[in-house]
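hey so i finally got around to running the thing on that chain from the lab meeting. sorry it took forever, my laptop kept dying and i had to restart like 3 times. anyway pasting the input first so we r on the same page abt which one it is
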Amino acid sequence: MSKKPGLMPGTLVYTAEKRQDKVTIEFYQYDANSYSSKIYADAYHLKENLAQGKVNWININGLHDTSIIESIGVQFGIHPLVLEDILHTDHMPKIEDFGDYLFMTLKMLRMVDGAIDQEHVSMILGRNYLLTFQEKDGDVFESIRENIRSDKGLIRKRGCDYLFYRLADTIVDNYYLILDHLDENIDLVEESLLANQTTGISQTMLTCKKDLMQMKRCVLPLREELRKIKLKNIGLIEEATYNYFDDVLDHLNYLAQGLDSQREGITSLMELHMAVTSNRMNNVMKTLTIFATIFMPLTFIAGIYGMNFRFMPELEWRYGYAFALGLMSLVALGLIWYIRRKRWM
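ok and heres what got predicted. didnt touch it at all, straight out
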C-alpha cells in the first residue's frame, strides 16, 4: 500500500472482513446559533477545518481503508496503539485518558433480519472535537443528528463532552432492544417446551445462549470502564456532564441484572428441556417394556410348541392349534388387565 507524505511508519491492519465500498467522512459543526454538515472525500485536511468555539463532530464510516486512519492519527496526534485498537474489531470495550484526548471503544448492537448485528465503534474526545469511527454505514445515531439539525434538547447548547455522552448513552439504550429480543425468544422457548413442541428447540436455546454471551461481553466490560470516568478527574469532561454518566451506569447495571436473570432463565429452560426429553424417553421405554412383558410369555409358549420333540401330547390333538392360540390370548389379556390395574399404563 502506498503511503502519503507525513504518515506514521508501520502498517496498520484492519482485522475484520475486507470491504470494497468507499469510506465516507461526515463532518458536523454546530453551536447554539449555527449548524453545518459536510461530506469529505479524503481525510488529509480535517484538522484544518476545525472551528474554535464550536462542536466539531467527525464521523468516519468504514475502517477498511487504513490510510485514512493513519492520516487522522497524524493530524490529531493519536497514539499508534490507539489506532490499532480502532482497527482491531474484536477488542473489548475500554476507556483510556491520554490527557489531550479521551479514547473509548465499545460495541454497537442492532437487530438485522432477526439476528444481532455487532459493530465495533471507537470515539476520541478532544478539546473541541469528537472523532467517531464505525465499521460501516448505518448506526443508531440518527436521532442525535436530528436533534442537532433541529436544535432540540440540550445538545446544541453543550460541548463535545455532552455529545460524547449522548453517543455512548444511545448505544447503551439500544441494548434494551436486544434484551427485549432475548426475552421474547426465551418466552417462545418456554411456551414450546410447555406445549411439548421440541422440534428445533435445542438450536433455538443454543442461539439464545450465544446471544446472551455476546451481550455480556459488550455490557459488563463497558460498565467497568465507564466507572473510570467517575473515579478519575478527566479534564475533557465538564463537571455538569459527570452526572449524565451516572445515568448510563444505571442503565448498564440494569442490563447486567437483566442478563443475569436471562442466564438463569436459559439454564432453567435447558434443565426443563432435559427433563421433558428424559420424560419422553421414559414413556417410550415404558411402552416398549410393557409390549415386551406381554409378548415374553407368548414367545415362551410358542417356543415350547416349536420344539422338535417327536412325542408331545398336543401335537396330534385336533384342537391343539386352537388351544395354543387361546392360551396365548388368555395370558396376554391377563397381563394387560394386571398392568392396567397397577396403572402402569
